[in-house]
Amino acid sequence: MAVIIWASFLWARPAENFVGESSRIVFYHVPMAWVSTVAFFLAAWHSAAYLRKRRTESDEAAAAAARLGLVFCILATVTGAIFARVMWNAYWNWDPRQTSITLLLLVYGAYLGLRGAIEDPERRATLSAAYALVAFVTVPFLMFAVPRMYASLHPDTVLNARGRVEMSSDIKTVFFAANLAFLVLFFWLYSLDRKVSRLLREARP
Amino acid sequence: MNPAAPSAIAPAHGALYYVAAVNLVIWAGLFFYLFYLDRKVKAAQAAHPNPEDRP
User: Fold this and answer.
1) Domain boundaries, chain A
2) SS3 state of residue A151
3) For the whole model, what pTM was predicted?
4) What SS3 class is residue A150?
5) What average pLDDT does this structure show over A116-140?
6) Would you say the ipTM is above 0.85?
7) For chain A, what percent of residues have pLDDT higher than 90?
């Protein structure tokens, strides 16, 4: 991770069509958004597993994934706002990307709210698993469809409209290494969260 | 004396500071999550203390 931070500041050159050095923010902002998508997928996957087999571990895994997904989604929102400040001189301008990520935060914030509101563990697990499955339906729509349906200030997606990744080789190297590194970091935090949840469950009388 | 920089390119001068700010936000967020996990571990320990730790 230290190498990626160094490379993002000093090795990769700034991309064209960005204000000053702002393209370096992309090395951090995009992995946050991608990791949150992976996390929400995992939450839906484990929720489906819970509804099938009713194992407490699946419920804990889904909750941990949604929690971490929300953290990464908040970080994607904040880093995106900083990028917007450099590029467009305003932290927030209700761009379709900013609107859709806000909706996503509300959807998964409500998931955690739902979990906190129900005391009976079995009922909580069943209802939140059903909710997580429905919530995941909104993820491809809000993350991928909405920003492409409306005119946006947001730069091109990584895979652009021509189906190509158009970045210079140094930027591409740092960009994909950063995505991989943050994904590994996510899985480490995720496994820690699951272990802690198991400890808590075993500690309960 | 240098003329004032055009406002349209003014943010570019501090753009590297913005990249540093992005780093700070991300690591602060992830440390906050680790802190949250640490609190959960302490709650688990309080609920089920190790007999060897008792006085």
Assistant:
1) 23-200
2) coil
3) 0.84
4) coil
5) 91
6) no
7) 50
